[in-house]
Task: inverse folding
């Protein structure tokens, strides 16, 4: 058995000697483009850093705004609104023309939070909040109702007071 030599590498895989002229041209192109690329990259990094700083400032201001909004609503009122949000019942508001608007617990709680932010400054007690904001419409003074699964409707205030009384622990009574 005779051994044959391995075939030589194709012409494209062979190393060609680099001419000094081509090498000088490549170095000149890199040297000319280098600072421009550096400036563009530095500009990109500076813009990215500025955007990051702006995002962080916005996060801080949003957190401060949320804390200020939460401070407006006292803990007992916030707990009562959370109770409404967690309920599966429908909440009914009678409009000025006599039609009835139904809300889910989540939507009704959002409406009560908005009313409390706008109108509830200084209302720390739950009973005061229910008297002035929580149990009636703002313009017409019509009572809110809770629709139970069996179709009965209860006055919102009496339902909320009964739900709070049925809780295993009392709602917070002190304001921060």
Result:
């Amino acid at each position: 058995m005779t051994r044959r030599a391995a075939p030589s590498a194709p012409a494209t895989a062979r190393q060609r000697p680099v001419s000094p002229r081509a090498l000088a041209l490549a170095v000149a192109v890199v040297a000319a483009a280098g600072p421009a690329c550096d400036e563009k990259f530095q500009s990109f990094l500076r813009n990215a850093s500025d955007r990051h700083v702006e995002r962080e400032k916005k996060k801080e201001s949003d957190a401060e705004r949320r804390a200020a909004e939460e401070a407006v609503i006292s803990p007992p009122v916030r707990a009562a609104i959370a109770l409404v949000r967690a309920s599966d019942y429908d909440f009914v508001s009678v409009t000025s023309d006599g039609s009835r608007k139904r809300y889910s617990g989540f939507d009704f709680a959002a409406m009560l939070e908005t009313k409390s932010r706008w109108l509830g400054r200084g209302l720390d007690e739950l009973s005061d909040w229910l008297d002035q904001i929580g149990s009636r419409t703002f313009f017409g003074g019509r009572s809110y109702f809770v629709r139970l699964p069996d179709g009965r409707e209860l006055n919102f205030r009496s339902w909320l007071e009964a739900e709070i009384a049925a809780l295993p622990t009392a709602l917070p009574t002190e304001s921060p």
DSSP finds five helices and four strands in the chain.
